[in-house]
Amino acid sequence: MPNHSGEKAGLSFVTLMAYDYAYALKAVRSYYEIADEIILGVDADRISYTHKPFEMDMGEVQKDLEQLDARGIVRVVEGNFHREKHPLDNETRERSELSMLCAEGNWIVQIDSDEMLLNAREFRNWLISADADACVWAKWISVFKTFGDLALVIHPANESTPVATKLRGAYTAARRTNQPGAGSPLQMLHFSWGRSGEELRQKLQNWSHSWDFDLEGFYRLWESVTLENYGQFRNFHPNEPALWPGLAVVEIKGPT
Asked: What is the pTM (predicted TM-score) of this model?
């Protein structure tokens, strides 16, 4: 794909689609303007990382992409992304296989379906001059629960996640590589938990971390959190408690 004028490397975005494909398309909208190419991956058999079937309306996806993709830079790639036993291994394999399809020399930016870039243009301007040997990280602002126009977000936000590399096929665990990490100015709203109860339960049963903690127990905790009692919850991340020191109420819109 052609790069923006005068730039040595473009940005190839990869987003994985499954049962929550509607979120994936909203994620794409948050970075579309800064992308040179976009690859959307989906399991051809509609089987999740935990080997559960899911439904996906490809007609709806194509219709949305026709409206979204004015530049013709988006392509959907289907493959067998459920062949490994462990769900995290399936995710890592899919990311690596899709990265091999990205333009050589580009930054490969992997944005999850539940992430929204808040400062996309700033990120692009920073990334094109970043260390080519680094794995670039972004800041997560995690949305824990929504109540109409109000949301509970993790506060203070101190989580980060890898998002970009120039190495193709080199992922070691999800978006991680063996490269040294480099922080970036990118900030992303993370709607991993900020969903309806039905959507959240579906995700917990199918995502790559499904074997990492007591899903049912944590779902019950999530259900119990309200706008009246949220202040009681301190250091409550299921794997690393200190990552979630507390919650704050903000006015926020869902991914658009």
From this structure: 0.88
